[in-house]
Structure formats: structure tokens, C-alpha cells
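If I may wish for something, please sit down with the protein I am sending here and say whether C-alpha cells and residues agree:
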Amino acid sequence: MIDGSFREAFHAIPAFAQQSFADFELIWVEYYGTVDPAVNAAIAAEAPRARLLTLGRTGVYHSSYCFNAGICAARGELVLIPDGDLVVEPDFVERMWLLHERNPRLVTYNYRYNEPKDCHRDEVDLAHLRQTGVLTHPSNWGGCLGVRRRWLVELNGYDQHPVFATGDHGNDFDMYVRLKNLGLEVCWPREPVLYHPWHPGTLAFAYTHRLQALMTQDRAHRLTTLAYRGIDSTRDSEPPASVLDAIDEARRGFEQHGAAYQMAPAARFGA
């Protein structure tokens, strides 16, 4: 799980650390150099199963660096990359391993049930989330990715290109497209599921997400798999100039017109 010094609740750490499965680790990656004392306390309470990585980076938050640091540090065969503010059942990790154990080419995304704002409780209660959670985004590529670590390394990790440098990241959708382009078997199992307590900013609009999608849509058409800027810099390349031009044009449109701006068809579909 990752953070850029923006999270206000850390219930995901005990939820994922206190699992029925015996052989796993939890890695929390902080982008900046300062760690919330609550994170330190939560990690210490779950040690040695849980550990903290601090990148000490500066400037605009770029979650791909956190994801890639976690991938490099991971010691397990299967990597689960959940959002950092989720709650899951105590057998979540065990059930995910049983799914993946049978098929090394499997890629999974879990359904995420959101707590509605008008049902929100300050205290995180799994029984309450089971009862009130609503499936609002069935695809939700950022809820929890499950995949063998070898495939993430083959793709050179998440894309660290500056286009993805924002907290409103679309690198989850980008990773989905590249895993699909690699020919892996992607599915959304009906169970186990994720529960997401409501917090301010849930499902907020961000046009930067659409700009990032332009790069990903181009990948989808050309069936490319490698990150433009990834874990191993010797494997890096530059995006097509036409894609960067389309992103710049769309950025100007959103800055001038806001959410009402409509991208040109060629830009929307990466033509």
C-alpha cells in the first residue's frame, strides 16, 4: 500500500496485516520523507509482518514510484496492490492465493463496495460496511490488483512518466491495459470483495485522470506493454509525439473550460 502524506486513516494496515494466511508480508510505501506517527505505530504493532519504506522524494506526488519501490522490495511470488484505505475480511489474502495458485497467468481485480456518505460512521465496522456498501465502479482498476511479481517486472513496473505525476492517478488503468496486452488472463472474481469507508474526496472529478487515459488508450490500440519510464531505466522509451500533443491540447481545454470540455474524437480514442 502507498501514501503521499495525504491519508488521514490507516485502518487498512491492521485489516491486511491480521490475516488468516500465514506466509505473507505487508509493505507500506511513503513517497515523501516524513511519516505520520500513526503509520509508524500501526506498522510497529504488526511487525515483523509489516514494514515501512520511505522514499524521501520531493515535489509533486507520483504514485508510480511508490508502486515500483514496493514491487522491487516484495519477496513474495504473488503481489497484491490494494488501495490504502480499504477494509477486507480476515481470509482475504488466503482466498486470493487460492485463486492465483491454480493459474500463474491470472490477473485479478476485486469489486469494491463503497460506504455511502449518508451512511457513514466514524468508527470502521466491517459488519456495517457489509450491510451498507454499494458497488459504484464495477471496473475499479485501483481497488486491488493481484498478479505474479514476475509479470510486473516484465512490464518494467508502473509508468513513472510525468504525465502520471499527480495524486489523481490513472496508472492503475494503464497497468491493466498493459497486463491485458501481454496476453494474461484478467478477471474480476465475485469474491472476495473490498470495502471502502467513505471519506471526503471519494469519486471526485479530476481532469488529469482523462489526460493520463489518452496515453493508455494509445497503448491499447498499439498493444504495447512496457512503461515509458519504469523500474529499469535502460528499458525506457519516449511516447509518440502525437500522443503528447493530444495531451497538451486536452490539458489546455480542461484548464479553460473545466469538466464540460469535450476532447476531440481522435484524442479520446488514441487515433
